[in-house]
Amino acid sequence: MNKQNTTQKQLVALDLDNSKEYEFLIGDNDTYTIEDKELNAHLEETPDGFTFMNVNGVSYPVEIVAQKQNEYEILINGISYCFSVETPFSLQRRKILSSQANESSTILLKAPMPGKILDVLVKTGDTVKAGDTLVILEAMKMQNAILASTKAIVKKVVVKVGDTTSKSDLLIELEKDN
Q1: At residue 2, does pLDDT exceed 80?
Q2: Of 28, 39, 71, 122, which shows the fewest CB atoms inside 10 Å?
Q3: Cβ distance 25 to 12 under 8 Å?
Q4: What is the mean pLDDT of residues 47-72?
Q5: Cα 66 from chain centre
Q6: What does DSSP say about strands 58-68 and 71-76: parallel, antiparallel, or unpaired?
Q7: For the residues of 36-48, what is the DSSP string, one character each?
Q8: Nearest to 168 by CA among 114, 95, 131
Q9: How many CA atoms lie within 13 A of 99 on its CB side?
């Protein structure tokens, strides 16, 4: 194969179970280069709805169990793999954001949409656990429960019953409770 006529894109598969990184290049015509090995790989769907991944002429049954943005859970030959596909830039950004998230213990709970505060169920100093309802926000005639995402202590309640909020307005400030 003439490498000079091939455009290649560098990507990284990040194993979400153990954070191991697998760098690979995507070339033209279903070619992939992993650890200096060139592979010809593509997906095939059979008329009866089954999907197979063909790698260098060998077919493997594959099922995409879940996909959210660039994160995937797939079954290949009955073995589950969870990974994200990143560019070198997005991988670096992910690492920076992850390290910042670990450093910060403050959670800023913001309004997911514009609306009116119907009820505030917590006060400063309260301890909450994941799943506890903190605020009831009415938007488009529907009541939306705003929940705690983790165990935390309420540092500051910014809103009160009757307040009108815009999208991304700060509602409550929490401090993670380890």
Answers
A1: no
A2: 28
A3: no
A4: 92
A5: 12
A6: antiparallel
A7: TEEEEEEEEE-TT
A8: 114
A9: 5
Residues 88 and 95: their CA atoms lie apart, in Å, by: 11
Q: 């309802």: which residue's tokens?
A: 133
> What are residue 94's phi and psi, to 5 degrees?
-60, -40
Closest among 145, 135, 148, 136 to 175, alpha carbons compared: 148
Q: What one-letter code names the amino acid at 131? A: G
CA angle in degrees (0–180, nearest 5) for 171-176-178: 160
Structure-token match 């903190």, residue found: 134
How far apart CA 161 and CA 117 sit, in angstroms, is: 5
Side chain identity at 75, as an amino acid letter?
A: L
| Number of Cα atoms under 13 Å in the Cβ half of residue 138 | 9
* 91, containing H or E segment: helix 88-103
Torsion of CA 118, 176, 14, 86, to 10 degrees: 50
